[in-house]
Design brief:
Layout: H1 24-37, H2 40-51, H3 63-71, H4 75-88, H5 106-121, H6 128-134, E1 139-146, E2 156-161, H7 165-173, H8 190-203, E3 216-225, H9 227-230, E4 236-238, E5 247-250, E6 257-260, E7 266-268, E8 278-285, H10 296-299, E9 310-321, E10 334-338, H11 343-351, H12 356-364, E11 373-383, E12 386-389, H13 391-402, E13 414-417, E14 425-426, E15 432-433, H14 435-445, E16 450-453, H15 463-478, H16 491-508, H17 511-530, H18 544-548, H19 552-561
Parallel strand pairs: 3-13, 9-11, 13-16
Antiparallel strand pairs: 1-2, 3-8, 4-7, 5-6, 8-9, 9-10, 11-12, 14-15
């Protein structure tokens, strides 16, 4: 044997090379062996040499099977190696430009899970750089080291690393970052479990049969976001006019066309400097009253058209008066900002003109739903980039409001709220209510209303979190093509279009939807009680159809009243 490489083959398990088990040195040797066997005399000599050990190779007519058998790899791996060596003159694997689109390997799955946790904790409002920074040195590396360097069989050790911005972008591009079942349930502390047990023990048996469920209201806040910004990307799209001469963009994430007012050959959907357009919503809901409780199972449930369960829906925003003329407007014009909920603002939403108390009275009087869907402008002060509630002006308005004729509320007795800091709870002192919250409680008591704090980490006890917000946002998403694209500087236009859609859709929500979420709330309370205050996982069935029948008769009656 004249070729020494056959006497001491290099065969090491570990390589990113395309050809299975050969590392760079092994690949070079294998390629040299193929070239050596390309000589007919050498091929004949080596074939005779291996015939005694591998009789099945006696009939081969090419070097590839011999080399593959010798190195313990597949014949295809050797053929790919030869093809690469002949075309490029090198057997060293070329560095790959990036990772695969689908994260399937174990370290990648762990990294994806960690990124989803961060993404969900931030409620989706987090940038690529922030995701990467929060996971700095916390995710498994794609590289593997061994306890004994370059020794096959050494114990593998995975290092910790930081997911790059390209990794996070890749996950977003392939829709791997989302609000998914991967999201972990929050850990319930002993205090939280105790609060949940006490709450459900007191209220789980209330029902419409006893009338106690009709005395409840539930309040909560949420943001409605601009859908194209949620599916953010920079898109360079050729402009093509339709039959009417309009230019449009076909979205990959939403199956509809968004018309552009720009007629450039290329359109950039949004820039990285833009801030997401969103509106701050404050909702109040109640369980709609059955008009035919004794016959609803056979005839279908009937509800009042205007007392449909939506007590109030506000867009809350801060407003200030422009003090000078500038490029954005004239002196005296109003300026609007997204409101940040705090204790005083929370009280203002209840007691201001057209606020929660007024809407509760209007709901009991059966006034149209549209009258209870409105914008509340809160006086604010802007200093630099900080927008805060104008305390002096707000207190003056509340004091003037208190001198007016009182609101009369008969049906509602209890208002459920969560313990958010924006509601006037000091979470730095075990969630104790602040003085502003105590003042609100005293004022509501004068109307016969009691504020009841829901347990910690328990959105499944609030009907708005259970389904009302999802109903409204899904309606908005379906009609998002009617909202202008974000181009920087047109946020007020976007917010106005979003609010118009929400007003229209909220007024059309049927009473049965609100009735369902309140029945779901009661089913959740019983499930929490059965779980001894722990998590309930999947929401339980309510048995609404079995108990109250179908909705067809009610729907016909409601359409007739319209």
């Amino acid at each position: 044997m004249n070729n020494p490489q056959f006497q001491s083959p290099i065969q090491v398990k570990a390589s990113a090379a395309k050809h299975a088990k050969l590392n760079s040195a092994g690949a070079a040797n294998a390629y040299a062996d193929v070239l050596w066997l390309g000589n007919p005399a050498n091929f004949k000599e080596y074939k005779a040499h291996v015939k005694t050990k591998h009789p099945e190779l006696a009939q081969v007519i090419s070097p590839a099977p011999l080399v593959a058998k010798h190195y313990g790899v597949s014949e295809r791996a050797i053929r790919d190696l030869v093809r690469k060596g002949n075309s490029t003159g090198s057997t060293v694997p070329k560095k790959r430009p990036g990772r695969t689109n689908h994260m399937k390997k174990s370290p990648e799955k762990k990294t994806l899970r960690a990124m989803n946790v961060v993404y969900n904790e931030a409620n989706g409002q987090i940038g690529v750089r922030a995701v990467s920074n929060r996971l700095k040195g916390k995710t498994p590396s794609w590289k593997t080291t061994y306890s004994s360097k370059n020794v096959d069989g050494g114990r593998a050790k995975r290092t910790r690393t930081t997911p790059s911005k390209s990794t996070v972008n890749n996950a977003i591009k392939n829709k791997l970052l989302a609000f998914v079942s991967m999201r972990e349930m929050p850990e319930l502390t002993d205090d939280a479990i105790a609060e949940r047990k006490a709450f459900v023990a007191k209220y789980k048996d209330e029902s419409i049969e006893t009338g106690e469920l009709y005395t409840w209201c539930a309040v909560d806040e949420s943001y409605a976001r601009h859908l194209p910004f949620k599916n953010a990307r920079i898109a360079f799209i050729p402009a093509h006019p339709d039959e009417d001469g309009n230019y449009y963009q076909s979205h990959l994430d939403i199956e509809k066309k968004t018309y552009l007012d720009a007629k450039a050959g290329i359109y950039v959907e949004h820039g990285g400097h833009d801030h997401e357009a969103m509106i701050f919503l404050f909702g109040v809901t109640a369980c709609p009253e059955l008009l035919n409780p004794t016959t609803c199972k056979t005839e279908g449930a009937e509800f009042d058209l205007h007392r449909n369960g939506l007590v109030a829906l506000f867009q809350v925003r801060g407003v200030a008066i422009r003090k000078r003329n500038d490029q954005w407007g004239n002196k005296g014009d109003p300026m609007y900002w997204r409101a940040n909920m705090d204790g005083l603002l929370y009280r203002y939403v209840y007691e201001c003109e057209g606020g929660v108390l007024d809407c509760m009275e209007a709901y009991e009087d059966g006034k149209p739903v549209e009258d209870r869907i409105r914008v509340i402008n809160v006086p604010v002060i802007k200093k630099g980039n900080v927008v805060s509630t104008d305390v002096e002006t707000v207190l003056q308005e509340l004091q003037a409001r208190a001198k007016k004729e009182g609101v009369i509320i008969d049906t509602f007795k209890r208002i459920q709220e969560d313990g958010a800091p924006g509601h006037g709870y000091n979470n730095r002192q075990s969630g104790k209510p602040t003085q502003v919250h105590n003042d609100l409680v005293s004022n509501l008591n004068e109307f016969g209303l009691e504020l009841i704090k829901q347990p910690k980490l328990s959105p499944a006890t609030n009907p708005l979190d259970i389904g009302v917000w999802n109903m409204l946002k899904s309606k908005l998403d379906v009609r998002m093509s009617e909202v202008p694209m974000q181009k920087g500087g047109n946020q007020n236009e976007i917010q106005a279009a979003m609010w118009t859609i929400i007003k229209q859709e909220a007024a059309l929500l049927p009473a049965r939807n609100f009735f369902n979420v309140w029945q779901q709330r009661q089913a959740n309370l019983k499930a929490i009680n059965k779980a001894d205050g722990g998590h309930i996982g999947q929401m339980p069935h309510t048995g609404i159809r079995k108990k109250y029948g179908t909705w067809e008769a009610r729907m016909g009656a409601e359409e007739g009243s319209n």
